Amino acid sequence: MLAQFTQPNYPKDLTPNEMLSNNDIRSSWVGGGFNSYYTGAAVGDEFYIAGSEFPEIETGDQITKVKFFHELGIINFESGNVEFTNTQYTIKIYENPTLSGPYAAFGFYSTAIGTPVYTQSVTLGAEESGQAYELTLSTPYTVTDNDFWVAICFDNGKGAMRLGSADPSSDGKYYMYRDGSAYGAGIVIGKPNFGSISVPEYYPLGISLFIDDGTPYEEHSDLTVKYLDTYPGATQYISDVSITDSEDLIIYPVIFNNGTDATSNNATISATIDGSPFMSETSVDLSGFYSLPNGYYTTIAPGGSFTITAAEMTNLNLSGIFDICFTVTYSGIDPASANNTVCLTVTRGEIALTNCDMESLFITSNTDYTPITGSVSIDLADDITVFPAVKNNGPDEANNTANIIISVAGNDVDNQDVNLNGLQNGQILPVTESGTTLTAAVMDLAGLTGSFDICMTVTYNGTDADAGNNTTCLTVNRTSVGVNDELRNNIGIFPNPANDLITITNAENANIVIVNMVGSIVANVENASANQTIDISNLTNGTYFVRVKAEVFKFSVVK
């Protein structure tokens, strides 16, 4: 079942593990889990989050809040009742912690962990019980190049420290007071390992830090249009539909929010059919009660559908293949305007196939149709943009659609259906709005050094007299000297953002773990290949982390 627009209760309250947004956009929470209780905490115990181990936290950021769970009273567990009594908490921040001591080989470290640079206490009572408490620091802590840990201390009773699910990526990000008496060590600091030394199980602790990156808050909503197969009870989004000459056309367009934020402004909707106005600009309220959260849609038409009768289509001379296009314009911040107009390709009646010869081309630009062939050379620091296009070499006018695939170094990066209806003999049609761009950073991550090919393949759904020119390739040479070998050994992710598949480059024989923002493992690959492809089609939109060869990378899923 597809995500649907539902009310009320949105925008929802984020759990401490959910990023409010990407750190490049605005402030965010990072930290541990709140799924279960650790019942062994006592007076004087301290629990640590190693802030400098989180890639989201950068030098110059400020830590302005600390979030932890407060519980008073008796909680019933399967093992028996536990009474939590702690009301006094102290927040401590340490810099340059040193993990040392005679029992370090066992994972137990001296409690003298570093230089204390900040202390703040708070008393909580019954009103705050049973929920995560956000403590605003009286003086924000500015992140420097020093390593830093933040501690939660239970000062006067048994405390309710919460845990997330077991997660290997939590190793080294959290620590806690432990009883090392079995080793003669007394009270020591150790990782929250509830497995064994040989088979550890690391759990994220229920401590979260709020990062302020210093930039003003800006709400971002990325609105687009999608078409449902039916309503209600939709099971998929569609891009084309076929009907007979006698059938009415029923379509189910919706406004979909890809953005990190729920909407809070109005949007306008307009539509065309076969290039002519079909629906004039209409305002849609997407604020307050009608706010549209990330990953949800709302219908455009009353009742969910528009109907165009067979008689109306005949009067409009709509036959064969034509497009219905809806455009959504948001009054707030929409960072991706390229997807504001989306078309549904309609095939009406039988199509008498015409004889065409479709040729794939890379052209100079979307305004200069001069073909580019052979190879191009760029510096390692340069981005590259190619402009794919289709030429109809005739002899007939096109009256069908075509499938366009663009690949980079043998990997498909774009697959779309394009309506070529009306493309005349000798005409060239650009198939992307602004070309296809590969940034230097993406090429580095993908290990695209030296020479590689960018290719385009067109498959016409009518009669194509010559399939020999359906694929064209452009060789890209990245030419800076002395850097290629170093880049070739870098681990990277491609593409990023991703939809269905990601490739981890230079990951030979590594174990790859992908976790979501709440620390749960969503994919795990052992003994990976050099360029390991991973299916992420089941992941929802959001930010994820990949751990490979002790390195952590962040990527986004956008669908």
Short recap of the structure:
The chain has 559 residues and is mainly beta.
- What integer is the average pLDDT? 83
CATH fold field value of the largest domain: Jelly Rolls
Question: According to CATH, what is the class of the largest domain?
Answer: Mainly Beta
Biggest sheet details? 7 strands, antiparallel
Main sheet strand line-up: 8-14-13-3-11-7-9
How far apart lie the N and C ends?
A: 15 Å
Explain the overall architecture.
- This protein is mainly beta.
- The chain has four domains: 28-212, Sandwich (Jelly Rolls); 223-348, Immunoglobulin-like (Sandwich); 355-486, Immunoglobulins (Immunoglobulin-like, Sandwich), CATH 2.60.40; 492-557, Immunoglobulin-like (Sandwich).
- 3% of the residues lie in helices and 45% in strands.
- The protein contains three helices and 43 strands.
- The protein has a seven-stranded antiparallel beta sheet with strand order 8-14-13-3-11-7-9, with no helix packed on it. Strands 16, 17, 19, 22 and 23 form a five-stranded antiparallel beta sheet that branches.
Task: From the structure above, extract its key features.
Immunoglobulin-like; 7-stranded antiparallel beta sheet; about 550 residues; elongated; single chain; about 45% strand; mainly beta; 5-stranded antiparallel beta sheet; 3 helices; disordered N terminus; Jelly Rolls; about 5% helix
